[in-house]
Amino acid sequence: MNGISAVLPMAGAGAAALLLTEPMRRFALRHGITDRPSARKSHTRPTPYLGGVAVALATLAVATTVALARGVFDPVLAVLLGGAAIVCVLGLIDDLRQLGPKIRLCVETSAATMVVVVGGHPSVLGGTVDVVLAVLWIVFVTNAFNLLDNMDGAASSLCVVIGGFVCLTAPAGDLNGLGVVMAALAGACLGFLFHNRHPARIFLGDAGSLFLGFTLASAMTVCHGDAAGLSGPTSLLLATLVPTLDTALVMLSRYRESRPLLQGGTDHTAHRLRRMGLTVPQVVQTLSAFAVVGCLSAMLVTYGLLAPGIALLAACAVGIGALRLLLKVPASSTASPRVAIPALADGGARTALRWRLGDGARLRPRAVRPTGVPHSREATNAAALSPTAGSLVAPQ
Is the distance from CB of 355 to CB of 363 less than 8 angstroms? Predict the structure, then answer.
């Protein structure tokens, strides 16, 4: 699919997502479908979900319509879009009432198996082993995007980059239908970014993040269905290097610190980049730039311009270096001891300011006066003027 033929599905899905997101946001607010702040999350105010439903509806509707109009709608495309819709519904149910990991994995594995059996997969070892590896990879990327959706605009921006890459490489396998789907997905994410860029007015939710990950992983697997040897796996790894590294970072960090692997937290790549001093837009731009490099490398491998073995070694070296660097950044803010400061008046009364480090909120000092000592206006003013710092929140 060339750039001109991708304009229609991209523009159509972008406009649809842009228009659908606002009604979804109002519906979510009206019915209390919001993500509330906590110590394991970086946002500081309740934010509505259901943005992913708008992205999914826009992608599925526009992709199906354009593919039918162009005569490129085939059984593989039907299975892929059907599986993506099922995963989106699974995520929506999880947004409304939390599901256990077993149910999620069973549904995701079933949908991925349908795509691999009907659409094909890269050939590495041959036989059933390749089928299993392809299914596991789709499930992995699906949940990696779910983990990656932890900062305003991050998952949507990466989906634009990776989706655009798949849209350009789909014609190499004469898969113009997949090109239409990827163009529509990238366009829908662009439209959604109008509402999801920092500060986000709405989140993707599990419905959206799972939908993005499953659709991208499934499309890439089918696109490389004729690849043999290292070419296919290397291209897939390079294109998804950012979500793969983020998942590896989180799992390794939690294992080293003996924390639950599946429990949410602010120990992701994006959070660590924030602690290194980057703003939210700068974090998103950094992740997107890294994804562009990975996708360009994957394109070179796909078209035979770069040896897959060399590209794989380079990706491993870069990945290990990035992990070593990011692991040096604190996984979360650590507790700060109580600090006592002398009061400014009232006969030497002392006012204690207590705070603890949290994630994503401002410092809100609480004045605590000893028993029997009157509370002074000057001490209150001193506390109110205390500077904010990063991710400090008041004690609970």
Answer: yes
CA distances from 256 to 32, 67, 146, 220 (A): 37, 48, 22, 32
- Closest by CA to 15, choosing from 187, 185, 200, is 187
Range of the domain at 284: 3-327
- Do the Cβ atoms of 285 and 275 come closer than 8 Å? no
Regarding whether 305 and 158 lie in a shared domain, the answer is yes
Q: How many CB atoms lie within 10 A of CB 350?
A: 14
By three-state DSSP, how is residue 331 classified?
A: coil
Which amino acid belongs to residue 223?
A: C
Cα separation, 146 vs 208, in Å, equals 8
The reply to whether 318 and 356 lie within a common domain is: no
Phi, psi at 356, each rounded to 5°: -130, 155
Q: Is residue 309 domain-shared with residue 353, that is, in the same domain?
A: no
* Same domain, residue pair 133 and 42: yes
Task: Write the pLDDT tens digit of every residue in 317-330.
Answer: 999 999 999 999 88
Token representation of residue 197: 């860029």
Average pLDDT over residues 117-136: 90
